[in-house]
Structures are given as C-alpha cells and as structure tokens.
What does this fold into?
Amino acid sequence: MSDELKFLQDIALFGGLNPDALTLILDVAPVVSVSAGSYFFRESDEARSMFVLRTGQAAVLKAWRGEDYVLRRLEPKDCFGEMALMDLEPRSASVLAVSSCTALELSGSTLDQIYKAQPEQFTILQMNMGREVSRRLRESNQQLFESEVQARAVDGNLHVFST
It folds into this structure.
C-alpha cells in the first residue's frame, strides 16, 4: 500500500472508502501548494472546492470590523472548505497558510468523477462530509453556549431552568 493511500485512510473524511475509491481520488484530485502567508481562499470568494491539508499549518480566519480572528488552526489531515461543495455559497471564512502547505484539492468535478465511477463510495464520502460539518456545528454550539453562560453570569442575568 502506498504512503499516499495510507495517508487518506487515516482521515475521517475518507473513512469507509475502499482502496479503489481512494486511488481514484489520488488520481483525479490535484495537489496544490500554498506558500506561507498566502491564502487558500478568502472569505466571500466563490467556492469551487474543498481541501485536505497534507503538509504545513494553516489558520481559518473570520473577518469582523476590519480585523481577522482565528477560528481554528489546521494541521495535516484536517479538511476545510467542504461547506462549499454542500451549499454552493461563497466562502464563510478565509484560510491562510501559516507555513508552506500542500493540500489535496477536491472540486465538484472530482466528486462527479467519483459519483460516476463508484456511486456507493460517493455516498459514503458525502455522508462523511456531512458528519464533519455536523461535528463542527456541535463544537460551535458548545462554544457559543459557554460564552453566553459566562457573559450572563458576569451580567448577573443568568437563568437556570430546573425540571
């Protein structure tokens, strides 16, 4: 088994995919290089693809009142930009290469090739993408909840409901 195939097998996004589907992904998805200080994409850009970080570190940034804030840091094997392939909306955040990076780029046409060649594997990949988005939503909900509770506790406006 190749190192690249093993790399993909260790990523939750590709969990449950068979070696043939993973090999197809490696064959059709280009590897992009982004130098330190450059962007994979910027908030509000048109979205056409998602990425799986192979090497380097990156940061997800959200702009607010003229400043960029770090939402999360990305390490090898992290995926980002998958919402673009699910909702076809502009980018909701920017991704900046903190160090020189390489990433596997999965575009809509890449996914279409997987669908045509192995529809059942495409379905698994789509379910995995949905799980990743759901996991992040749960994390965001928890962070929002904790921030809200802390803010209300400081304001003295904390309401606890008991059953």
Q: What stands out?
A: The longest helix spans residues 119-155. The chain has one domain: 3-154. Residues 149 and 160 are 10 Å apart (CA to CA).
